[in-house]
Structure formats: structure tokens, C-alpha cells
Write a structure and sequence with these properties.
With 265 residues, the chain is an alpha+beta fold. The chain has 2 domains: 2-211, no CATH class; 223-264, no CATH class. 15% of the residues lie in helices and 54% in strands. It contains 3 helices and 13 strands. The strands form 2 sheets. Strands 3, 4, 5, 6, 8, 11 and 13 form a 7-stranded antiparallel sheet that branches. Strands 2-1-7-12-9-10 form a 6-stranded antiparallel sheet, with no helix packed on it. Helix 2 (223-234) runs antiparallel to helix 3 (250-264). The chain is elongated and about 75 Å long. The relative contact order is 0.18. Bound molecules: calcium ion (2 copies). The site of one calcium ion has 8 residues, from helix 2. Residues 214, 216, 218, 220-222, 224-225 line the site of one calcium ion (CA).
């Protein structure tokens, strides 16, 4: 997570260096957090918590919901704590969820505590762009915990994804071109606790947009981008398949160099 935030800070510093920075058109966004703790017994049947969300297509949405369910005598039955930190601009999407859920009273018939996070952002590019998608999910202990995220073309394939279930972690990193079209970035998390099985974990993702010839995605278009592209081109790797036709050949070099020159002027 720290790596993502550092890279984000560097990217925003470098962003002013070049005039021709592309943007994305955010078509819709839904950032949700649902935190609930419930208990049921002979004389007791109650839940605590809330579901809150933002449909704003830009800006920060940070929130924390704490569900603290107590019995009639003030004894703790179940607790859940969920947090979201997020930001959407026309050049990036940043998202973090943290979840912690626990059932403390084993004497009650039935009790559970859960944190659900669900974010989906849909956006459009009118021109080709270069992007970086990074994600990380971690379940802290073996429990009923799932989290994951993806970058996908709307109505098309998944481009990059990550997911974790129970204890452990998973990550994803995609650097490449997206062609003009409609895409989505989404992340979701589900931590559900029962007596004796607490659930906790986190999810983070970052999506950033660069000019299509900013090959090294540092926010400016210069000789280093040309050199890095040519090195991949000479090795004929998929990383230099600029027109996305599945082969790396001369037409990729011709097109990339022409666009790179035009962007530098
Ligand atoms: Ca660059
Ligand atoms: Ca090609």
C-alpha cells in the first residue's frame, strides 16, 4: 500500500511537466460501505450498523462506519469496523478498504458481524492512453474474508485482476495501452465474523492514466520513453505491441515514434 501511495505522489508531482495529458470521462461511480453487527436470542433481536455510499463521479469519498451491538445490560455482542478511503479524478482512481469484524458473546443463539465494501467506476477514453493498474488484497487471518479487484473492458475481457480468500494476499500490476473505449475499475471486500472466527483484512487499488507515448509512465514525454520502447521493440516483446494486433513489428515502431514526436512538439 505504501508503494502505491508513494508512486501516486510522484505521479502527481510530475503531471505538470507535459502539456498533452489525456483524461478519462467518468461515466458512473458507486462507492459503498456496509457495516453491520447482529444478534438473536430468547429476548433479544437487534442489529447495529449502516449502509452508506457515494455516487459522485469525482472527488474524495472517505468514510468509517462502526457497528457496536450490545445486549440490554451493556455487554458486548458483536463489533464491526469498516473504512473506505477513495478519490476519483479525470486522471486516476484510488481506493482503499479496511475491515475488522468480531463476535464476542458466545452465549447468544446467533450473532454475526460483517463489513462489505463495493466500488465500481465506469469510464471512457476517446483516444488511446497508457495506464497503470495496481491492486493488493490481504486477509489477516484464516476467516470468512474475500477481497479482490479488476480492470476490465465493459462488455469485454478482464485486463487485470487480483483476489484473496481467507488468510494471505494477492496483488496485480498492469502497465499497458488501453484503446479508445469504455472500461471499468472495481473492487470489493467481504469480511464476515462468527463467534470464535473474527475476520479482518484490506484492499487497495490504484488506476492512473498517462499519454500513450509516456512509455515509462513518469508523467512526462521525453527521450527515456523512446529508448524504453525501442529496447522492448528490439527484443520483439509484447510490451511494444503499440497497435495491439498481437505481434510486435515495424508498424508498431513507426506509429509509436510518429506519435511520440508529435507529442513532444
Ligand atoms: Ca515518460
Ligand atoms: Ca503490433
Amino acid at each position: 500500500m505504501q508503494t502505491v501511495l508513494t508512486a501516486m505522489a510522484l505521479a502527481s508531482v510530475a503531471a505538470g511537466a507535459n502539456a498533452s495529458l489525456p483524461t478519462m470521462d467518468v461515466l458512473s461511480a458507486d462507492r459503498e460501505l456496509f457495516v453491520i453487527a447482529c444478534g438473536f436470542d430468547y429476548e433479544f433481536d437487534d442489529c447495529a450498523g449502516a449502509r452508506e455510499s457515494s455516487l459522485a463521479t469525482s472527488g474524495f469519498y472517505d468514510n468509517q462506519i462502526i457497528a457496536d451491538l450490545n445486549d440490554y445490560y451493556g455487554g458486548d455482542i458483536a463489533d464491526a469496523d469498516g473504512q473506505i478511503f477513495s478519490n476519483i479524478t479525470d486522471r486516476r482512481i484510488e481506493l482503499e478498504y479496511f475491515a475488522n469484524a468480531e463476535v464476542l458473546d458466545g452465549g447468544i443463539f446467533s450473532a454475526d458481524a460483517s463489513v462489505y465494501g463495493d466500488t465500481d467506476v465506469e469510464f471512457e477514453f476517446l483516444d488511446d492512453v497508457r495506464v497503470v493498474f495496481e491492486g493488493y488484497a490481504e486477509g489477516y487471518t484464516q476467516s470468512y474474508f474475500t477481497a479482490g479487484g479488476s480492470l476490465r473492458e465493459v462488455g469485454g475481457p478482464v485486463i487485470s485482476s487480483f483476489a484473496v480468500q481467507g488468510a494471505g494476499d494477492d496483488d496485480a500490476r498492469f502497465v499497458g495501452w488501453l484503446y479508445a473505449g469504455t472500461y471499468s475499475v472495481s473492487g470489493d471486500l467481504d469480511a464476515s465474523a462468527f463467534f470464535g472466527v473474527p475476520a479482518a483484512g484490506e484492499l487497495s487499488l490504484s488506476f492512473r492514466v498517462y499519454h500513450k507515448t509516456d512509455f515509462n509512465t513518469d508523467g512526462s514525454i521525453d527521450r527515456a520513453d523512446r529508448d524504453a520502447f525501442i529496447a522492448e521493440y528490439r527484443a520483439r516483446t509484447a510490451a511494444a505491441d503499440y497497435n495491439g494486433d498481437g505481434v510486435t513489428n515495424r508498424s508498431d515502431r513507426v506509429a509509436f515514434i510518429a506519435d511520440w514526436r508529435a507529442a513532444r512538439d
